[in-house]
Amino acid sequence: MADNELGIPLCTSESDETNPRNIPKVIFLEKAEELCGKFKTETVLAQFRTLHSKYRYMQQSLLAQRANLKAKVPDIKKGLETCNFLKEQNEQQKSTDITYQLCEIVHSTATVEPTGTVCLWLGANTMVEFPHDEALELLTKSLKAAEEKVAGIDLDLLFLSDQITTTEVNIARVHNHGVVERQQLREQGKLGPAETAPERPTPARPPVAAEPATPKVDHGLYTWKQAAEEVEVTTPVKGVKAEDIKVEILPESLVVEHLGKVVLKGALAGRCSPNGSTWTISSNRVEVTLVKADDKNWPALFED
């Protein structure tokens, strides 16, 4: 993640202090010109978005690991309590009456004589018999390892949260730089004038014959404008956060969701290139930049 196939330095060098688990630290982009002066703005933006996705994937993976470990800790503690109890009973040469659950509604009582050993499940349908002291030592080590692992994951999650926030700031700065850059090119006559369509409800994509009809959804309002090479779409979303937004860009369609609810959806009036297209968020709105697949002028954003 520190480097990419295009050689764009998105993360700090390996000689810098990084996360103990070797999670790379993203650079803080003071000025977008630092990278956009050397590489194409669209390329830098796409690489930052890829890095952001990787951080998000790592975050979700660590959260799943943490939940799994947190669920195991109580079981290990119960195992320790049981082993200590059986050890005490064995030292006093006392038998123990234990109630077993045979199934959901059937229980049975059995008398356990002191044997000096206990059987532990090790996983993968494997049970091993240990002396009490060895069982206690094994369970104690397992508990310590699990708690240390949880603590390490908590640190990683804090580190990842910082990297995600920094990456989102970098994305916003590069995007804004691209807007200014394109405006300057238009003023210099190197790009055609942008065309802006009036706000109107977004029509739903016509249903495909092989699929059931899509239910009617209120998509809200949007604004759009186009230049020779790209189309910019803006849709308002209150209280927008990156983790709450899902954007799907296909060659012939666009979908924007907020908290699982579709706020913008339709079949595009022209074809776009998903690989070069990007999206970002700012105050109460989502901005999508679609790179045109050809130089044709779009009569509208969505098909009627």
Automatic annotation (TrEMBL):
Leader peptide range in chain numbering: none
UniProt entry tagged with the keyword Transcription regulation: no
Molecular function in Gene Ontology: tubulin binding
Positions of region (Disordered): 182-215
GO biological process: microtubule-based process; protein folding; tubulin complex assembly
A Pfam short name: Prefoldin
One GO term describing the cellular component: prefoldin complex
Alphabetically ordered keywords of this record: Chaperone
Keyword Chaperone applies: yes
Record family assignment: Belongs to the prefoldin subunit alpha family.
Protein name: CS domain-containing protein
